[in-house]
Amino acid sequence: MLTESQPHFRQPLLRTPFHERARSLSQLDSFIPWSGYTSVDVFTSVEQEYFAIRNASSLYDLTPMVKYRISGTDALRFLNRLTTRDLSKLAPGRVAYTVWCNDEGQLIDDGTVFCLAAGDYRLCTAEWQLDWLRASAIGFDVEIREVTDEIAALAVQGPTSCKLLKSIGLAGIERLKPFEHATLAMPRTSAAPIALQVSRTGFTGDLGYELWMSPTDAEPVWDALMEVGSTRGVRAIGSRALNMARIEAGFLLPRVDFVSAAHTLLPGTERSPLELGLGWLVDFGKGHFTGRRALLAEKARGPRRQLVGLDVAGQKPAHAALLYTSRSGTRQAGSVTSAIWSPTCKRNIALAIVDAVHATTGATLWADIYLNRELVWERRMVPARVVERPFYAPARRRATPPADF
User: Which of 197, 145, 151 is nearest to 3 (CA)?
Assistant: First the structure.
């Protein structure tokens, strides 16, 4: 049985269960569409929101993340055929990041898989995937149900996020290890406790958690976090601040760092997991999965392109810049997919797709950047050095907070 609760394109845009709380804090009225919902891009200041992620705690509305409940006798077999990772190793209470490809080994999408119980999983993706899941499920005894509207989700990220969650009564939160999830109770004085599924996951590369709950509990949870966080520098953040943090962490964003092979228009613009530095997610020893033969062949010959990190000279972010082998700009070597000036690293950083021959750490390329100086556009070629990713990886991301934290 395969069902989807809402069509892929919704008019008008839906509001998440956190919308009224977010709207009351929004000073710029800057909203963007995300998977049929309206989502905050910026509340007040991108810089202030970014520093809340890195120095305190931040709240980000994750509800528009597309969620599928996958269950049945063949749920594990189906997921192992669909994705490149060996999910037979995923025990209840664990979360795995994974990707899936077409027969040519080109990426369709990435996402996280929650093992809720034996034969019961939740798949979270940034894009609608029911059509691909339906085609991949032929011959399997599996039920796939889209449950996006049934689950409100909130990311709580930053170095004080564990302390913040303990302050609202989530006992034992400090015992949760990276990529684990558990159901914890948030006590209330005048009503029954709220059951929250909490996962130690996130998109910031920092210490952080994601809360999954009934939509009816969304506002009480938000209010509790904002109340205890009022003296702790807690701030609601939008997508632009989150984007800065995820670039520092070296995380990929669909439709930015790669486009699903199901939607690419130009030949050669598809990307494989090996090209994107995600070879560690491909388990060739688990048996057959979609795209396995093509990926084996690519591994043998070597990827033609590679995703790399760049340290770009100057302070002007190299947004969508073309990359060349020399300052003369006669031979193109690749292009930038994501770029920012990193406030934490104090560096001009970027993610880029380049020809594999130029992907060696330490190699120098030249970025073609356009500067606007007093209403006059100026073209400038600046050096861009290939560097290791992630750009920023604090130890607290994987550390176990002390019990009294």
Answer: 145
